[in-house]
Amino acid sequence: MIRIAVANQKGGVGKTTTAINLATALAATGQRVLLIDLDPQGNASTGLGIGQALRDRSSYELLTGQATLEEAVVRTPVPRLDIVPAKVDLSGAEIELIDFERRTHRLDHALEGGSEARWDVCLIDCPPSLGLLAVNALVAANAILVPLQAEFFALEGLSQLLQTVERIRSRFNPELSILGVALTMYDRRNNLSAQVADDVRACLGNVVFETVIPRNVRLSEAPSHGMPALIYDHRCAGSAAYMALARELIARLPAKKAEAA
């Protein structure tokens, strides 16, 4: 199972929207997908229609050892897409995990102890911070996907995240790679979006995905209906963009693993 952390310490960049819709798009291509909601706000869970009543076991119990991966997994309405939901208890995990042995490897350990063969790809929706929850995701992941809002301060935040990735590589996970940077909330009518995109591509080159995710009302509406935009309105520009991004992502997956899928 390929593990991909969807991470950016800056909030409001479309990270959860990207995680939900990429997971759905990958499932639509035949991949068996596991989405781990590691954000205490639980927006990825809500966006896939997983109500509080279905979150008896969650990523909190998974990290603290109170539940196995199999016990925490919930099936979503999307075929071939499962989720480990999140609930508000996760907000206290940052403090609680301090007392755990190998606290930075809790998620990695939980995934290794589970039936990884059930899924081809695991997406980890990280919280908008670089705290212990995000570190657990980066230690467990094979690669990181960075949603990056096409706005002025994007590069500054990206620089901080890349420094964190280098520290994780040097101390905990030398195999961690950058799968790609996805430009989100792109407004073609705004010259600033084009300028930021040019700057990011000049800085990072081919690391940046060709596909850009546009500002799209249907993408914003879909979570309130408890479904991904690809199901809420598969014809909208946002859905088409995420399908294109999924195709790019699949092309970048390690060849050996991709063939196994």
Give the gist of this structure:
This protein is an alpha/beta fold and 261 residues long. The protein is 43% helix and 17% strand. It has one domain (2-253): P-loop containing nucleotide triphosphate hydrolases (Rossmann fold, 3-Layer(aba) Sandwich).
SSE map:
Elements: E1 2-6, H1 15-28, E2 33-37, H2 43-47, H3 59-64, H4 69-72, E3 74-75, E4 81-84, H5 93-96, H6 106-112, E5 121-125, H7 132-140, E6 143-149, H8 154-171, E7 177-186, H9 191-204, E8 208-214, H10 217-221, H11 229-232, H12 237-252, H13 255-260
Parallel strand pairs: 1-5, 1-6, 2-4, 2-5, 6-7, 7-8
Antiparallel strand pairs: 3-4
Helix pairs in contact: 1-12, 6-7
Residue fraction in strands: 15-25%
User: Which stretches are low in confidence, meaning pLDDT under 50 for 5 or more residues running?
Assistant: 256-261
What is the top-level CATH class? Alpha Beta
What value does the average pLDDT take? Answer: 91
Largest sheet strand order: 3-4-2-5-1-6-7-8
Q: Indicate the CATH architecture.
A: 3-Layer(aba) Sandwich
* Helix and strand run: EHEHHHEEHHEHEHEHEHHHH
Report the CATH topology name. Answer: Rossmann fold
The helicity comes to 40-55%
In CATH, the homologous superfamily goes by the name: P-loop containing nucleotide triphosphate hydrolases
Number of helices: 13
How many domain regions? 1
Shape: globular
**Spatial separation of the terminal alpha carbons:** 9 Å
The radius of gyration computed from the alpha-carbon positions, rounded to a whole number of angstroms, is 17 Å
* SS-derived structural category: alpha/beta
Q: Give a short account of the largest sheet.
A: 8 strands, mixed
Total count of strands = 8
